[in-house]
Amino acid sequence: MKIVPGDKLAQEIKQKLKDTIQTEEIHPKLVIIYAGENEASRIYVDKKIAWAKEVGISAELIRLTQTTTEELLKITKTLNEDAETSGYILQLPLPSNIDTYKVLENISPKKDVDGLNPISIGKLYHNQKDHLISATALAVLECLKYVAKYQDDNQYSVDEITQEADELLAEFLNEKNILLINHSILVGKPLTALLLQYKCTVTIAHKFTKPDRLGKLINDSDIIISATGQSGLINKDMVHDGQVLIDVGINKSAQKIGGDVDAKGMENLDIWLTPVPDGVGPVTVAMLLNNTVKAHIKGVV
Amino acid sequence: MKIVPGDKLAQEIKQKLKDTIQTEEIHPKLVIIYAGENEASRIYVDKKIAWAKEVGISAELIRLTQTTTEELLKITKTLNEDAETSGYILQLPLPSNIDTYKVLENISPKKDVDGLNPISIGKLYHNQKDHLISATALAVLECLKYVAKYQDDNQYSVDEITQEADELLAEFLNEKNILLINHSILVGKPLTALLLQYKCTVTIAHKFTKPDRLGKLINDSDIIISATGQSGLINKDMVHDGQVLIDVGINKSAQKIGGDVDAKGMENLDIWLTPVPDGVGPVTVAMLLNNTVKAHIKGVV
């Protein structure tokens, strides 16, 4: 079993952003709207803000314990027009009284660093390039890029967001059979569009897929991208040599944080795995910052 | 082998539209922009216009033999603002000198009766309901609805666009394994979003899927929706009892018009098939008219 070192990847992406921000003398700003009492979200919010500051992005937290759709629409309007704000996100999930779609729809596509505005999604499905894409989806691609690059020269070097790495990824993904276990607008849906662009054959499974069918699909796929939060959904008896397992799941027990994959007994298999924690998670935060810098450079109002 | 009678379905949808238009005393109008010299398109354009008039929709053809992106953008602007026009489409493909995406992006989502504007696509992927959807994708669902309804009471009655039929379709599609052989923005992509809403597990294959893999996927699926234009892509040796084959392919030889499915030898199998011609094709035209009436009723400017 080979491990994709998400933490290392994230650090490299951050270093690159830091260099860009210093060299270009730019001042990007990320705003995070965090509403409600979802405590799980808090850890992510804190990390996003801390890492933003580390690379030289100003970060502002708008903390709302009680709010309404109307208030959030007012805030999006202000942020859309604010020349200082390069990009902003709504930390999801929002409280149940909020019309989440309506708020997402009102985020300016130029500042939509989570890629959730319908125009961002529509452009992605139209294979356009001038839009922002879900940081989670991009993080999955970065992890696959690592595998592609490693397989190419048996060692991985720093410069991972390069044209060359993109070509290696395209070559690696070409004609691959991919299983997505997630059909959300943050993970499964943007990844479907991206992987089709890379000429992959894509299967989208989810909680309504029967277990025996899911087992068969896992067995039949070259790459499995799982984001269910269901501990032990994938175990050693379901996988085989040559597969890549991208674990985007997160669940917390009293003891520890884990993903969808139970890696016990996989040690001697010739597979790739992104661990949880320290796999896709930190790369996602890094790609959110990358989106923020991208939005800033392209012009924000 | 049981045949989905597309022609009959189309006639029933048309009759229903005719009744609505007369009862409601409305005057919907469909405009078709037909640019270039693609002769295959001509037949479709003529049929759309003829059928529109049959049901009481005014139909206007804007015929352009030579055009530019700028001219098309001017036309979309005029049509977007025209209170008489309920909906309009660009007959695709456009000539190669045209930036097709840029023109599609400028169709008002309210009049986008082919469902190709990025906002229409983005809303579809967000599981919203207040937008227009590709007529081809809707036609595929209508054909599946026919199968669902037939299986339920062993005979099909007229009133196919009803709440009850929708529930039967939902029950029929629930947990089904579906193979799409097409990943275009007109067919495969909207169908992916729709079928996920119906809790299907969806695989998207295309011309980059290797033949042996495609054979395996066809064998493994409950419903196969094929739109490649490749004659004989699916033959009797690849399918088995219990499957539904939706043939959206069209190809013309000197002798005849055919689809992706070679039905020879399938006669004794317990399968459903939409024939070509007279399957999904006429239902697509009927659903375009249905979209036009829907757009008209919702308000067009």
Structure description:
The structure is a homodimer of 301-residue chains. Chain A is globular, with a radius of gyration of 19 Å. The longest helix of chain A has 19 residues, at 6-24. Chain A folds into two domains: 27-117, 3-Layer(aba) Sandwich (Rossmann fold); 135-282, Rossmann fold. Chain A is built from ten helices and eleven strands. In chain A, 44% of the residues lie in helices and 15% in strands. The mean pLDDT of chain A is 94. Chain A starts with a strand and ends with a helix. A six-stranded parallel beta sheet of chain A has the order 1-11-8-7-5-6, with helices on both faces. In chain A, strands 3-2-4 form a three-stranded parallel beta sheet, with helices on one face. Strand 6 of chain A pairs antiparallel with strand 6 of chain B.
